[in-house]
Amino acid sequence: MRIGVLTGGGDCPGLNAVIRAVTKSLLGCCQAEVIGIEDGFAGLLEGRTRPLDWDAVSGILFSGGTILGTSNRADPLATEQATERALAQARTLGLDALVAIGGNGTMTIAHGLSLRGLPIVGVPKTIDNDLEGCERSFGFDTAVATVTQALERVQTTGQSHGRVMIVETMGRYAGWIALEAGIAGAADAILLPEIDFNTEALIELCRQREARPRYTVICIAEGAKPRGGQMTVERTIENSPDPIRLGGVAYHLRTLLEPHLRSEVRATVLGHVQRGGAPTPFDRVLATQFGNHAAQMVEAGQFNRMVTFERGAMSSVSLAEVADRTRQVPLDHPLLQTAREIGVCLGEG
Ligand code: F6P
Q1: For residues 21 and 194, what is the distance between their CA atoms, to the nearest angstrom?
Q2: Mapping DSSP to helix (H, G, I), strand (E, B) and coil, where does residue 3 land?
Q3: Atom nearest to 130 CA in ligand 1
Q4: Alpha-carbon distance 279 to 226, whole Å?
Q5: For ligand 1, atom 15, which residue shows the shortest CA distance?
Q6: Mutation test residue for ligand 1: of 72, 172, 238, 249, the one with most atoms within 8 Å of CB
Q7: How many Cα atoms sit within 13 Å of 307 on the Cβ side?
Q8: Average pLDDT for runs of 10 along the chain of length 349
Q9: Of 228, 279, 284, 295, which is the most exposed, with the fewest CB atoms less than 10 Å away?
Q10: What's the pTM?
């Protein structure tokens, strides 16, 4: 068997752990020849590959990023010509199947190509944790750890100066990172795309805390917006399948709060530090399980499905069920209630 492996979309910690596990498992279980495709679907369209053997994937478990490179611009579904080219390249490379490690965009492309006859196993990757059908994607735990540490750090400086400290997380249209990191990092307010915030409630919170303990920490997801307002778009990338890049709502919130407070307000946008660096032990284990499970699915001929992690176990779901869908924080999620009951402001009221 000849199996291609690619990483698509934005990178995240744990990609190398999946590449390592899927390659070692495929070499072991089916004596497969494993071909790494460079820079995601861009490399497939251009036929850029490199062999993946035991040595090529040894020593990469701890490292962030992806040894194969990635791209969130190339879209083989953009035109019929591009689709034909991707399928022709797969035939030229002699691929019996493709393991596509990526997020929502990658799974949508994988689904499209699988409908045209390319056998694919998807592996869910995203710091945003917003993939339909998957409780936990690898990369998320590492991002939460990074944001949690940032919240701890702004707390001490906020305390010294008696300031309101706003920390903005990534997450696109889902608030998973902000919610978990906000709780782990003891944020006083957590603002999510799923709950439009009431600025008055935040002003009130900050005013109360100005007396004692003098500082307030707000964790805000990049997709959050004030009631009646719009999301903050940082830029639009013309030739990207998903052109909108959010960012900067922390600065907007500062302008909404500052005129009404005695304290100074400072905003920190964490950006790509959340995507870089070594994966946490949890993500290393999860990514290894995902890679191993993907290889088992290849061996069993279970194609056109994405590996998932549900209720603590490896499973899979059809690509048709995950393509073009994302998973937001449900409004009845138990963590929201926990946050409320320990006095965290969710911008409601
Ligand atoms: O989907 C992962 C993610 O990091 C989002 O949280 C963020 O909105 C986006 O990608 C940033 O994309 P880029 O790396 O293209 O700026």
Answers
A1: 35
A2: strand
A3: 1
A4: 33
A5: 10
A6: 172
A7: 30
A8: 97 98 95 97 97 98 98 93 98 98 95 98 97 95 98 98 98 98 98 98 98 97 98 92 94 98 98 98 98 98 96 95 95 98 97
A9: 228
A10: 0.97
